[in-house]
Design brief:
By secondary structure, this protein is an alpha+beta fold. It has helices at about 1-20, 25-30, 40-155, 165-210, 215-225, 250-255, 300-305, 320-325, 395-400, 425-430; strands spanning about 260-265, 270-280, 280-290, 310, 315, 330-340, 345-355, 360-370, 435, 445-455.
Amino acid sequence: MKLLLLLLLTVAMSVVVHSEDNPTLPSMALTTPPHPTPTEAKSRFALLDDVRLLANGLLQLGQSLREFVHKTKAQINDIFQKLNIFDHSFYQLSVVTSEIKEEEEELKRTTSYLKANNEEIRNLSLEINSKINSILIERAQLQSKVGSLEEKLKGLSQIMLPPEQIGEISTLKEVIEAQEKTITSLLNAVKEQHEQLDNQKHKIKNLEEKLNNDNFQDTMEKSMDSDPSSLDTFEYLTVNSTDLPTDCSELYDKGEMNSGVYVIKPNHSEAFNVYCEMTSDGGVTVIQRRLDGSMDFDQTWEKYEKGFGNFERDYWLGLQKLYSVSQQGAHLLRIDIEDWRDVKHWAEYRFSLDGSSAHYALHLSHVSGDMADALANVTGVRFSTKDTANDIQRNCPRHSTGGWWFDSCGETNLNGRYQWLRAKGRSMRRKGIHWKPSTGQSLSLKTTKISIRPAPAASDSLY
């Protein structure tokens, strides 16, 4: 619009300047009759038509430029999002590559060190072998002396020996026994040296095989280039142990105080991995976490049932696992969020979950928190994804992205698209992660976390 006004002002100024530059206009105004001739009227109206035509063209040009600017802004936002994803992936790849290079250098240094030790051990082995040979020679000499002494003793056994000879014989026997013990200890030491030498040779051989394996580096790079969601972290585990905890709170009760990934086995379920967060209130099972957009949450129904992501970053545990944990008694569900101004909020609900036949319908009752309740209308709502729409309008996952308990489109969705910048515009906020209460301000979110823990004993009869 500013460009249009500028162009209209320029046209008007040009008309004024044209009238001032023509000195005959004032005199003509005095001499001509009051009514203009048809020729003059026609030329004047033609000039106004040109101005209207130019104004319409400028309006159309302004509208086109405006549409072009909006499209360009949207394309630039998409490019920035893709560049952020690429920068994050490239940073992770560079970090892992540097770690692999450091491990390879450490492996080379260890190999060279073991080779030097191997040479020293080999020299020691040769020296020990020479000593063993000399000991064996001395042993043979002693055995020959003992044999001769035994023959002498046999000859003297028939006569009385003087006390001096009896003492010499006793001393000689003690010397022989001491020599035997020394020889035995030396032989044991040699045996141990040979075993250590064999172990060192075996280690050196394994290290040389690793260094000479051309596919070692390629395998590591391929494993880093693979999609993290393709790992079997969220598969059920085949575990024979019957002493596994049923949830994270049981781990806490047994004395485990460190947060991390653990294996649990709820009642009537196979064992599986979960992330347990140990707090002052006990152990809680983290169901969902959004930190940096490293995982796309616009997944299928099968993925939302099974689970996906990375326990250390962004992930969804899985509806089947959430259902099996929630069936062990009354539970509390807690939601922690952080907006783009780094302000944190939380809310806690009593909840229960139906099974797969009921499409995992959610039942909630608000307990406490420091933010407006945005899930009041979610009670009894079934879960929906882009390929399995169970919501009332049957199209919310397509417009909002991600799987969620949709009551109506545009409402709260913690599994929406991660946006690295604060979303502007209603349509962009609706597709992103947001918290929208029925009354109050809608929050565009930077991080989210959903966790559950057993409800206190007084809450066991909530449902």
